[in-house]
Design a protein that fits this description.
With 176 residues, the protein is α+β, with helices and mostly antiparallel strands. It has two domains: 66 residues, Orthogonal Bundle (3-methyladenine DNA Glycosylase II, Chain A, domain 3); 64 residues, Alpha-Beta Plaits, CATH 3.30.70. The protein is 32% helix and 8% strand. The protein has a two-stranded antiparallel sheet with strand order 1-4. A two-stranded antiparallel sheet has the order 2-3. A hairpin with a 7-residue loop joins strand 2 and strand 3. Helix 2 crosses helix 3.
């Protein structure tokens, strides 16, 4: 009886140590899906950000074709990852647009801070009653700062193609 109790204790310690040592943080499928998404945090997919959308895809609560900023390339990459057939982007959630950044027309800015509050990635710098500016390298182009601006001093400008960000155009895909 003592030997059996001792064996149970040893196995319990081994299992407890293994559970702590080899613990998996989060769902790796969600992390892989989230890595494919564009991280604009725009909410066009119907979720408050890319991570909640990735979680919904992993649970089967959302379809893979709801992300306009990711475009058809994103849908195709998600289909490859999940081993499902690709489908056209659902235009009910919006149209894909060229990547762009927000630009504040500083002479028109009144410093109301509404754009700062709306920005999900803190890409807008400024203080109340002072001119604001956008940190272009941090801006995801989600356009969430445009609507709250009471003086319409925020415009979206496409990112110019440079040697660092240029890509050859994808061949046209046909679904049928």
């Amino acid at each position: 009886m003592l030997i059996i109790c001792l064996l149970f204790a040893v196995f319990g310690l081994i299992l407890g140590y293994s559970a702590l040592r080899f613990k998996v943080e989060g769902n790796p499928v969600v992390d892989n899906i989230n890595a494919i998404l564009p991280q604009t945090q725009c909410g066009q997919c119907g979720f408050p950000g890319c991570k909640p959308y990735a979680t919904a895809i992993a649970k089967g609560e959302a379809d893979i074709n709801q992300c306009p900023p990711g475009g058809q390339d994103g849908v195709d990459a998600l289909a490859d990852l999940l081993g499902v057939e690709s489908k056209p982007l659902n235009e009910e959630f919006g149209q894909p647009k060229p990547k762009s950044v927000a630009v504040i027309i500083e002479k028109d800015c009144i410093g109301c801070v509404k754009c700062i509050q709306a920005c999900p990635v803190d890409a807008i710098l400024g203080a109340a009653k002072h001119v604001h500016t956008v940190i272009a390298s941090e801006c995801t182009g989600c356009e969430l700062c445009v609507e709250p601006c009471p003086v319409d001093c925020i415009v979206m400008q496409p990112i110019a193609a440079t040697l660092d960000n240029w890509r050859a155009p994808e061949p046209e895909r046909r679904y049928g």
